[in-house]
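Open question from group meeting: does this chain pack into something compact, or does most of it stay loose? Before anyone orders reagents, we agreed to write out a predicted structure and look at it together. Recording both the input and the output here so the notebook holds the full record.
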Amino acid sequence: MRIALGVEYDGSRFCGFQSQKSGVRTVQESLEQALSSVADHKVQVIAAGRTDTGVHANAQVVHFDTEALRPTHGWVMGSNIKLPADISVLWAQEVPKDFHARFSAQARTYRYFILNRKSRPAILSSRVTWVHRPLDAVHMQQAGQVLVGKHDFTSYRTVHCQAKSPVRTLHSLKVMRHGDFVVMEVYADGFLHHMVRNIAGVLIAIGSGDRPVDWAAEVLEHRDRRQGGMTAAPDGLYFHQVDYDLRYGIPVNAQEAGLLML
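C-alpha cells returned:
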C-alpha cells in the first residue's frame, strides 16, 4: 500500500531534506530510518518539496510504499518514537497508488518570517531572519505584486537551478506586518531553487529603502540572476502548505509555522 505522511521539522540542524552521499544529517535520512524500523523493511520516502539547508517545514507531505500492515496511528506514534526531537510526523493515511507527494501537488505555499527590530533574537534564533533596519512592509507588498502571474523567473533562481524551465505562475504574494514581525507568504504552482529567498532578498532591499519599489519589476525583466541582489537567509523560510486534488483527502495545513504569537 501507499502511505502519505504530514511532517514538520526544524531545519536549522539539517543539511536540507534530501539524502546526500556525503553522509551529512538530512530530514529524509532520519525519516527513512524511523519508518524502516516501524515497517520492519527498508523504506524510501518522496517529498512534496526538497527544502534546502536551514529551511523549516510545518506542512511537508511525503509518501512511501510498504507491505507492512499498520494502523495509521501506528505509523505516527511509531515513527515519532524513533525520530529526533526536531522532526515530528503529524498524520498518516493510506492513499491511492497514483498519489505522488511531488508530482500530484497542484500548488505550494511558503512563508518567510522576518524579525524586524534592533536587537537580535534569542528564543527564535535560526527560526526567523533578523533585519535590524526598519522595513516598510507596505512598499514590500506593493513591489511584490508585479511578480504575481506567469513569468520567467530566471532572475529569481540560483544559477545552479536544474529546472528545465524558469517559468512559474505565482498565484499570490502577500507581505504583512505583525508588530516586530514582517511575514511574506508566496503561493504558486511551483518554485525554482532559491526562488522564495531571492524574492525575499529583493523585497527586503526595497523595504529598507536601499532600492525603489519598481526594482522588483526591473529584476524580473532582466532575466539575469546577477541583477537580482542578495539571497535572503534560510532561517525564516517555512514550507507551509501543499495543495492536492480533494479526492486524495490530504489534510490542509491550518498551523502558523510554529509562531503562535502571529
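Observations to bring back to the group:
Helices lie at 27-39, 72-82, 137-144, 195-207, 215-222.
The chain has five helices and ten strands.
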